[in-house]
Every structure is written in structure tokens, then in C-alpha cells.
Amino acid sequence: QVVCQPEFVYWLKGRYRMREIKRGNIWKQKADVYVIPTCGVITKAGALVMGAGAALEAKKRFPSLPMIATRYLRSEFGLPEKMIRMRGKKAETYNGFVYGFVGVIGSGATDKTVGLFQTKIHYSDPARLSLIGHAIVRMNVWLKWLYGFDEFPSNPKVVMCFPGIGLGGLRRESVLPLLEDLDPSVEIYEL
């Protein structure tokens, strides 16, 4: 079932264009790449926090994914940054990354390729449109890189959760315009 609202039609390059949003669970789709929304917090044990929503579902399916994800992040960005977050008048520190998007190629954690699409820095913060925009740019670059491998299908099926609207707390209408810039091979699902 396709979910479309007439007010979400945007005029682009001289014609109407609208991103198709499908209803359903990404894990019930047969796909080459599964993209889930994530945060940037790293636990003291060195694992990416994946404690709720689609990230928790991915962690249940692939228990070593949080540790492998951190290895991917460290290989690309080095050590996590020390972040400061205010809770009322108290400052809390934690380790984390601002990475936008990173793809974990199927090996070790899973035979599936999982994309980590960052929508927020700290898991208890709301999602940020600027971070979603950054993640879209990085994901598009990664997909172009991925399509160059002979081992990968020439037209891979990429499915992703609608970013930022569930536990991220953003309004669907705020995120939709950003999704127009996603690679056309990406299918977006919402529950």
C-alpha cells in the first residue's frame, strides 16, 4: 500500500515528483541492504547504542552488529568524541560520533548489509533535520561506491525505515522534502 498526500507533491526540475512511501516492516522485505535509523552514542563497552525501535530490532537479529558498527565507525572516523549534553543544569558526558551514514557490509555480524542512518546524536534527543540531510548525502555516496562491486547485484534492493518520525519525534511533513534527494533505488517504509 502506498501512502501519498496531495500536499506533499513538490515541483522539481519542471515536473511534479513525489517520493513513494510504502507501509510495512523492512524486515519482511527481501532486500540486499536494510537501512535503519540510529544515534551516535557509544557505550563504555565500545558498542553503538541500539536500544529502541528499528535499531533494537536489528540488534536482536544480529547481536554483534553494535560492536561491528563501532569498528566501522572507528576505521573511518578514529576514536569517538567526548560529547557534552545538558540535562537541566547538569552536564553529562558520553562518547559518540556524528557520522551521518555508515554501511556495514554483510560479514561477521550478519550476512545482510545493514545501513546505519544517523537521525540523532544522543538517543534521548529528538531527531535533527540537518543530521538527516547529512545522512542522505553520505548514503547516496556510499550507494554509488557499493554499486561498483561485481559481487553486488547491479540493481540492489535497498529498503529503509522512514527516518526521524518514530522515536525521533519529527513531523512526517518536515522530513518528506529531504527524502526527495535519496538515491532512487531506495524504498522507504513506515509502519
Keywords:
191 residues, alpha/beta, three-stranded antiparallel sheet, 27% strand
SSE layout and pairings?
Blueprint: E1 2-3, E2 10-12, E3 15-17, E4 21-23, E5 33-38, E6 41-42, H1 53-61, H2 65-77, E7 81-87, E8 90-96, E9 101-104, E10 113-118, H3 129-146, E11 158-161, H4 172-179, E12 186-190
Parallel strand pairs: 4-12, 5-10, 5-11, 11-12
Antiparallel strand pairs: 1-4, 2-3, 6-8, 7-8, 9-10
If you had to describe this structure to a student in words, what would you say it looks like?
With 191 residues, this protein is α/β, with parallel strands linked by helices. 25% of the residues lie in helices and 27% in strands. The chain has 4 helices and 12 strands. It has helices spanning 53-61, 65-77, 129-146, 172-179, and strands at 2-3, 10-12, 15-17, 21-23, 33-38, 41-42, 81-87, 90-96, 101-104, 113-118, 158-161, 186-190. The protein has a 7-stranded mixed β-sheet. It has a 3-stranded antiparallel β-sheet with strand order 6-8-7, with no helix packed on it. A two-stranded antiparallel sheet has the order 2-3. Strand 11 (158-161), helix 4 and strand 12 form a beta-alpha-beta unit. The longest helix is centred in the C-terminal third of the chain and has 18 residues, at 129-146. It is globular and about 50 Å long. The termini are close together.
Sheet/helix structural class = alpha/beta
Largest beta sheet: what is the strand line-up? Answer: 1-4-12-11-5-10-9
Tell me how many strands there are: 12
Total helical elements = 4
